[in-house]
Amino acid sequence: MPHPIFAGVGAATLEKLRRLGIQAPFDLVLHLPLRYEDETRIVPIAEARDGGPVQVEGVIVSSEILHRPRRQLVVRVSDGTGELTARYLHFYPNQARLLAPGRRVRLHGELRAGFLAPEMVHPRFRVVAPGEPLPSTLTPVYPTTAGLAQMTLRRLIQRALAGMALDETLPAPMRAAHALQGFEESVRYLHAPPPGADERALAERTHPAWRRVKFDELLAQQLSMRLHYRQRRARVAPRLPARGTLTRRLIESLPFRLTRAQEAAFREISRDMGEAHPMQRLLQGDVGSGKTIVAALAALQAAENGYQTAVMAPTELLAEQHYRKLSQWLEPLGVKVAWLTGSQKKRVREEALEQVAEGEALVAVGTHALFQDEVRFQRLGLAVIDEQHRFGVHQRLALRLKGDHPHQLMMSATPIPRTLAMSYYADLDVSVIAELPPGRTPVATRLVADSRRDEVIARVRNACMEGRQAYWVCPLIEESETLQLKTALETFERLKNTFPELKVGLVHGRLKPEDKAQVMDAFQRGEIQLLVATTVIEVGVDVPNASLMVIDHAERLGLAQLHQLRGRVGRGAERSVCILLYETPLGPAARERLRIMYENADGFEIARHDLRLRGPGEFLGARQSGVPLLRFADLEKDQDLLEAARETAKEMLERFPDHARRHLERWMGLRHEYLKV
């Protein structure tokens, strides 16, 4: 049964409110204005200036429907100081009847110079009685959806504000410590600012009332994350201590030495796995920093204790790369690695499933196929999730449920800016591999307009004729995978004809896994000199001899994708170049992205810009991850509030647990249950 505040609201309106995220009375309180209109004063028509919004009041002198040059309602209004014309290009018969000569009206809109008198096009109007009082506060304009009028929202919000106790959830010492004003005072102010309020501070959300609301939102997020962290620490996981038998043998067999950063990251992971509660660690490292070897060592530590590891990747190509590397490293040590994917032949798949279920395979590698019910582990002790932001919360949960609270290692080559880590990843322990392995050369980035395509083609030919290899990445076509494939096939044919002396290969998402593997093997062995590819190669491809990449229509790609692709070159000792080939004219957003790529090689710096440009929701893929997105706070602008909320959450849970519970219920209802994954 709906709450009394929603009494009399029809089903259609309730559905529109739900679309805005309004389901409970408190959602109305937190549905804050986008902007305000000043209807607290009347300006005489003679004094009204062009260009800005203004409110006038007068009597309708004439009202007529004209049919030339198009059908329109033209209303002339006089207030004794002057006249103006109100013009309506779209109107209902009822509006024409209301705007009849002799009626007194208030018009609110933008004034502009007209042919005979100043004009307003589509001003808001209200028929009023002489001497009718003006509003005493600024008029809020709320975010809305089609068919839901501002008046309806204002009425419901006023009803909620009048009928609810807006009690304080923040203890007085904490309010004082951060110089925050009261919650009720802040919310009421934002819904109805007085005349003369600092409209700039309200618009920029720097007003003390906005700061309080943003702080509360960040505090709710921090409390939720901290509780989740505590709950995880209370669970029991299998202890998988470092025994050093298999891990030492792998390190000794490697043809390279681990970097200090890799060693430090593995030490942290190894220590966590030895604890009796489930590890939940995020391993961050830029493209090519060597996260896979660290994951291999973690899998061996699980194997030393008789437990299995699941390694999951978002694409078949990346999962297959992991499978090859892990087999190469682990099988000589007697650790069987199974490969599971959705496109396998039934017999091969059944064999792999049996090896995992019997515990014969201590490591299982695959895509989301690992989530499926038929996949049974004998003793799952560790789940490794690569490019974890590409998986939804339910998928990560499904994998966790396959074991008795297995340890989780999440890996990301999309570096996470500090503010994002403090906010959305506050419930995780984070390890960072901040250095590249020796022998990696920095990649030079070149921006080249499409008009110079011939020069780029000549450069590709020279590189391949000198014994090196190159990638040609085809443009991303959002609307259609079929169109993207068509472009890739056309590019492949064109380049094959352009370079008859070179062996050109093609790889794309629609290729059968065995065909894809064949092409990648040939490229890895150097039999293919130029590889034409769609963006499927953005992660997991490692060919040290490939030192040139051309990204066609680079303006269509996002920063994270461009950075991932560029990371496919620069993996050997040869100086590498990435050419961003773009089509003119460039829009401002594309120009900005390409400039950032040209100026920055550091993934963390690129990620910081990416967060600034796209916002946390897009950056995290959090729209499907279950993490509550911030509606009011801005991680870039409100870092000081984030730090304060972080400290307050810790103290509040220890000293004021009841306040913490009430604060979470106010801001999240049951949504913070999601965060237990």
Automatic annotation (TrEMBL):
<keyword id="KW-0067">ATP-binding</keyword>
<dbReference type="GO" id="GO:0006281">
    <property type="term" value="P:DNA repair"/>
</dbReference>
<keyword id="KW-0233">DNA recombination</keyword>
<dbReference type="InterPro" id="IPR045562">
    <property type="entry name" value="RecG_dom3_C"/>
</dbReference>
<keyword id="KW-0234">DNA repair</keyword>
<keyword id="KW-0227">DNA damage</keyword>
<dbReference type="InterPro" id="IPR004609">
    <property type="entry name" value="ATP-dep_DNA_helicase_RecG"/>
</dbReference>
<dbReference type="InterPro" id="IPR011545">
    <property type="entry name" value="DEAD/DEAH_box_helicase_dom"/>
</dbReference>
<dbReference type="GO" id="GO:0016887">
    <property type="term" value="F:ATP hydrolysis activity"/>
</dbReference>
<dbReference type="InterPro" id="IPR012340">
    <property type="entry name" value="NA-bd_OB-fold"/>
</dbReference>
<keyword id="KW-0238">DNA-binding</keyword>
<protein>
    <recommendedName>
        <fullName>ATP-dependent DNA helicase RecG</fullName>
        <ecNumber>5.6.2.4</ecNumber>
    </recommendedName>
</protein>
<dbReference type="InterPro" id="IPR027417">
    <property type="entry name" value="P-loop_NTPase"/>
</dbReference>
<keyword id="KW-0378">Hydrolase</keyword>
<dbReference type="GO" id="GO:0043138">
    <property type="term" value="F:3'-5' DNA helicase activity"/>
</dbReference>
<keyword id="KW-0547">Nucleotide-binding</keyword>
<dbReference type="InterPro" id="IPR014001">
    <property type="entry name" value="Helicase_ATP-bd"/>
</dbReference>
<dbReference type="InterPro" id="IPR047112">
    <property type="entry name" value="RecG/Mfd"/>
</dbReference>
<dbReference type="Pfam" id="PF00271">
    <property type="entry name" value="Helicase_C"/>
</dbReference>
<comment type="similarity">
    <text>Belongs to the helicase family. RecG subfamily.</text>
</comment>
<dbReference type="Pfam" id="PF17191">
    <property type="entry name" value="RecG_wedge"/>
</dbReference>
<dbReference type="GO" id="GO:0003677">
    <property type="term" value="F:DNA binding"/>
</dbReference>
<dbReference type="InterPro" id="IPR001650">
    <property type="entry name" value="Helicase_C-like"/>
</dbReference>
<dbReference type="GO" id="GO:0006310">
    <property type="term" value="P:DNA recombination"/>
</dbReference>
<feature type="domain" description="Helicase C-terminal">
    <location>
        <begin position="456"/>
        <end position="612"/>
    </location>
</feature>
<dbReference type="GO" id="GO:0005524">
    <property type="term" value="F:ATP binding"/>
</dbReference>
<keyword id="KW-0413">Isomerase</keyword>
<dbReference type="InterPro" id="IPR033454">
    <property type="entry name" value="RecG_wedge"/>
</dbReference>
<dbReference type="Pfam" id="PF00270">
    <property type="entry name" value="DEAD"/>
</dbReference>
<keyword id="KW-0347">Helicase</keyword>
<dbReference type="Pfam" id="PF19833">
    <property type="entry name" value="RecG_dom3_C"/>
</dbReference>
<comment type="function">
    <text>Plays a critical role in recombination and DNA repair. Helps process Holliday junction intermediates to mature products by catalyzing branch migration. Has replication fork regression activity, unwinds stalled or blocked replication forks to make a HJ that can be resolved. Has a DNA unwinding activity characteristic of a DNA helicase with 3'-5' polarity.</text>
</comment>
<feature type="domain" description="Helicase ATP-binding">
    <location>
        <begin position="272"/>
        <end position="433"/>
    </location>
</feature>
